[in-house]
Amino acid sequence: MADHPRSDTAPTIVWFRDDLRVADHPALAEAVQSGRPLVCLYVLDETPGIRPLGGAARWWLAGSLRALVRSLEQRGASLVLRRGPAAQVVASVAANSGANAVHWNRRHDAGAAIDETLANSLATRGVAVRTFQAALLHDPPILGKSGNPLQVFTPFWRTAQTLGPPRAPLPAPKRIDGVHGLPSDDLASWKLEPEQPDWAAGMRESWTRGETGAQERLAEFLDKELAGYATQRDRPDLPGTSRLSPYLRFGEISPFQIWHAAQIAAGSGRGLRPRAADLEKFLSEIGWREFAYHLLHQYPDLATRNIDRRFDRFPWRTDNKALRAWQRGQTGYPMVDAGMRQLWQTGWMHNRVRMVVASFLVKHLMIDWRAGEQWFWNTLVDADAANNPAGWQWVAGCGADAAPYFRVFNPAIQAEKFDPKGAYVDTFVPEAADGGTLFGTAYPAPIVEHRAARERALKAFSGLKSNAT
């Protein structure tokens, strides 16, 4: 099909990816300012080699796209939905619509290589490409004094903070001159959400997907939970965390919006007055997200390959029965099981508990961290290409700036320290109370004894060190 003639009134395509919002969306804002009509496009990318979304993330995406459709329609635009290899789809939409420009916000996962190839291809056809910084406060890499990317969080974050304050968030456009009538898939035909069985009921009760839900969650956190965050963030029995991770994952809110809103809230006395330590700790968690993506930039195979190559020789065990018990929250360790059941019911797990359950899998059971990473990928609404594998490699001891392998969490002590009254465990593992039965449901005995499991793991790691070359 021949391309349409190009002109000053030719449309601009705004390609939405993991930035499903209209506020603080630089690619959209710049396109609106150009005065040209816009084609708003989302592509369910099926490029070979792109990791398909897990089930929980697909569920979240469906709700996020519906919310974006409503938001765009309120401003005069529509969202074109297509699926297939992204580069082919974008090029086809550009040709069919007569667009002479494509805008997108930069991404930092496997899709970045697709973007580079597509930009070059479009340029040869006279289609201009403009890209924008939106997903991270600082695009990678951040280099140390040696000229190499930083692999330890503290100097990474210290260096990042010397690069100047994050830019101010952009307002949402009030009006968008949208192009209508282009062929678009029916979102329902993508079958992103479960039907039979419908396993998403608990997630629907736990979350409001979309940009409005993100802003509501941020406001509630700043009003109620930022004060005390530094001390309460490790308590799964308390509402002490932001729960913004899935909104960040799908770009329903940007790190710039969060950064500036937190700074304003801390300085204005909004809600309960946070201490400087609360704000500093919360912003450092944004920093950990940044760090994970900078690691992904350096190690594109982060989800499959040990950063510390010594662990390529680690004697991981294959134990499908133990793996299933862990996945189902039937290990006999209440703290571990509560976390795994929270994950299954809500699509999310408290970060402290993520560390506990991950440590249990790779150290108590000595099952390869990649099996856990894959389970989280399938069941977390916030699973992304950077944070998920970076977290697992950190716990396993094989990542950058990782916890040492010999640090083995004792689930019982973790529960005593961070769930002192047992409220978190009682919520998700009620049968563990009252002697281990509830309504005739027996709670299982521990599938492995802590001390023996710890000694086995340390022995394996000791052998790894002695075989180092």
What attributes does this structure have?
469 residues; alpha/beta; Rossmann fold; Serine Threonine Protein Phosphatase 5, Tetratricopeptide repeat; DNA Cyclobutane Dipyrimidine Photolyase, subunit A, domain 3; 19 helices; 7 strands
Describe the protein in words.
The protein is α/β, with parallel strands linked by helices. It has 3 domains: 12-134, Rossmann fold; 136-168 and 211-298, Serine Threonine Protein Phosphatase 5, Tetratricopeptide repeat (Alpha Horseshoe); 309-466, DNA Cyclobutane Dipyrimidine Photolyase, subunit A, domain 3 (Orthogonal Bundle). 46% of the residues lie in helices and 7% in strands. The protein contains 19 helices and 7 strands. The strands form 2 sheets. The protein has a 5-stranded parallel β-sheet, sandwiched between helices. Strand 2 (38-45), helix 2 and strand 3 (79-84) form a beta-alpha-beta unit. Helix 3 (86-97) runs parallel beside helix 4, helix 10 runs antiparallel to helix 11 and helix 13 packs across helix 14. The protein is globular. The N and C termini lie far apart (59 Å). The relative contact order is 0.11. The model is unreliable at 1-6 (pLDDT under 50).
